[in-house]
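Dear colleague,

Following up on yesterday's call, I've attached the two folding results inline so they're easy to grep. Please treat them as preliminary; we haven't cross-checked anything against experimental data yet. The first protein's sequence and structure tokens come first.
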Amino acid sequence: MRKSIKFSFIALCISNAIAVNGAFATESNTATAPLSKQQFLTEINKLNNEIVAKEKATEGLSQQINTLQSQITQAKQDLARQRSERDTLNNSLQASNSEKAKLEAKIQSLNTQLADLKKNTDPNIANLIKQKDSAEARLQQVKAEVQNKTAQLNKLNEQIKQSTATVAQFKTKIKPLETQLSGLNTQLQQQQNKLNQITAERKTVADKIAQYNKDREWVKKYELDSDGVRWRDIHFEYSTPVSTAGKHSARTSGNSMHRHLESASDGLGNPQVISRPVPTLPLSQYKPDPTKINEVLISSEIPENKGKAVGKVFFVNQHYSSYVAWQPINAIVDDYIGSDDMHEVLSLLEYDSDKFTTAIVRTDYQKETSIREQAQQRYDAVKAKTPVITYRGQMINVGGKSGDITLTADLNNNAINGKITNRTVNPVQDSRDLFLKNGVISIDRNGISFSGKSGRSIVPATNNPNNLPLSGANFYGTFAGKNMEEVVGRIEGLPNESDSVFGGTQVTK
């Protein structure tokens, strides 16, 4: 059993060493290791050697203990045999003593009778004398037997005494060995626990390496364009959002966004209030999840205000697009300076409210070829496979989520229609579901886009007996992905409501 435990430990150690070596080999091919491979291998080899040495010591002690236990067993058997012989001898001695007593009594009786006969000159005296002599001879024989058996009994008692002492001696010897074996087993368990800990740490490292590789693949697949640039991050040229990638790789909705005010020092160290564009939005740091609305504070880009929030963004990262709503702390809206208590007002703002939102799309068009031609080829290829596509997603504006959206694109007829539901609005806003109608899909130098007709395309679904559209309201957007997997766009002109951006992912193939 101990050999099987030993081989199991050794196999585990070798397996752990190979696993660590493999994990770090992978890491050395893909990234800088967060922990030292050599440290883990050295520690595991050291523990392997210590465990093997302790196993050998344990095996030696076990053999000694087994030998002593065999000797104790033999000694106990000898002791039991000797005690049995002693009991038998005791019984025989008791029988001889009994016979001796009877003979002595008989001789005494015969002597008495002989004396009486001598007085009376009985003719039977000769016979009595003969019986007496026979009894005395037998008495001598019995006495000799008693003496011999007594000597044997004394010898057996001495042997029993020696055997008892031998058993006690063996027990005395085995006790420290058992204590030593217990100590070695404790050390062995400690070493195994340490090995288990290192194995767990190795697994943690391997998991981190695997996660790193997985994240790197995710970044490569979804966040980097053909030039290795993070296309999803948005920076601002004055007030206009611009992708960090080229126009062939990604494109923003292009509208300028509201600037904000910050306190800062001038060149002489005097405090002043300055107008600033939206800071860079690092959207690529967040994994794609079309169902999740991220809410992230954005810090100032002025060094002296580092770490100070100037606003926050609501955004959704789809796989090939993102849509964003910017909520500045101190906004500049038509000469009106916002504050922390005006966010609800911003969400109700109709005029100039498109400047709180933007969207970005990954296009992945070839650089030296007409975008229009590539877009047409893409459109025709998708239409041949899936002429009707349904998209579902969400809407957000400067106040957060503003509804859910469903769009259906009919590629054969270049048409797109849909519906807005679950309107998340303030009490003064219109909470009715809305139909999106009369959308037209078009292809131009910017790619594949769609739009409704202003004042004719958004129709309340209830409390509208004449099916009248909302005046001035409209929807428009663009398709994202090489297979038109996603849409992003804008809803504008809803009564008492800031513009919303929306996104949706394909739910029919």
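Below is the second protein, in the same order (sequence, then structure):
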Amino acid sequence: MVEGVVEDVGEDAVGDAAGAGSVPTSYEQFGVNWIHRVLHKERILRTVDEVLGDQIALGPIGAGPGRAFASVSFVGPTGPPRGSWSPGSC
């Protein structure tokens, strides 16, 4: 399990077991740093792409008065996900 995390975030994110060269940090700052290293943009977009797949389907949905006049359905391809970093607190 840890090996997969190391591959995704890189060796420098894990550090060495002895903590040589490290400076004391608060639990809050540790958590913020960890979230920023693990939940980076590329990883989130890759996960969204895997979950959504290559097709989206919606419907049938009733339309018109009382939602009984017509039925609407949609099936189409999904494009690659896009996203940008929004600075703020975790």
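For the second protein, one point worth flagging: DSSP finds four helices and two strands in the chain.

Best wishes,
A.L.
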